[in-house]
Amino acid sequence: MGRERPPGKPAEGPPLPVIDRALTYSEQEVLRLKRFDQMSEGELEATRRLLQDFDWRIAERPTRRLQPARAGAALDLRRSFRRALKHQGEFVRLAWRERKTKPRPLVVLADVSGSMERYARMLLHFLHAFAQAQTRQGLRTVEAFAFGTRLTRITRPMKRRSVDAALLEVGRLVKDWSGGTRIGGSLHEFNRTWAKRVLGRGAVVLLISDGWDQGEPELLAFETERLQKSCHRLIWLNPLLGTPGYQPLTRGLVAALPFVDDFLPVHNLYSLEQLARALESLPERGGPRRSGLAKAPA
């Protein structure tokens, strides 16, 4: 299979047809369930347009700051005393406080190696749509990285309003697009250089990869465990998981999966919708987490 051109490079051949944004309900249903790697160029373009209309949100986390509330676990003594002064010192109505909440930061590590070439472009569109949705909500909570044989930070391009301009800049930044895969080495670089900067405040990490790793599985297992312990929740998104009969049997996945909190498919529009719901309903306390002592897939 030939190497895919990085995003943003000019395509050869006739221009793609313009897709009508107003798709019928049946057309949308077909696109929702069709695999990304089986879509035509026209269907991929229509799917990218649908992604821009997604309402992307992520679960909120409690902060240390308190705010006034109608009821709560914390009594606001200062406001309660001020109210009592209006009633000759009688505590007619107590004042309460509750913790403020903020959306959790989201950190995305996207595999753009050769084995992911059929999915990488669409997943970058998903990442751009999520980042833009956060911007519309007045938030700056998305950090993005691409990796093949090395790690590249692509947060700034994903914040550009134009998806074409964003992908063009990603294509210039990522030098190992559609090359080999060293997941363990890339995670090592992230844990060493970026983890302390971007994993604070209960961050959620999305690791997007098919798991085909050319490195040592022991390194991948060690760095995955290290990453899991540094974030609120580690979610591995695998496009192959939506393939009938697929089993995660590669050495890298067998080593890493015991340290992954959620292992989810990301092969069509429906799976992205399910991911959106999962991100919006994450448990506040993190929920049960896998341990390295858990049995790996046979």
From TrEMBL:
This is VWA domain containing CoxE-like protein. Residues 103-284 form the VWFA domain. It holds the Pfam family VWA_CoxE. It comes from Calidithermus terrae. SUPFAM superfamilies: vWA-like.
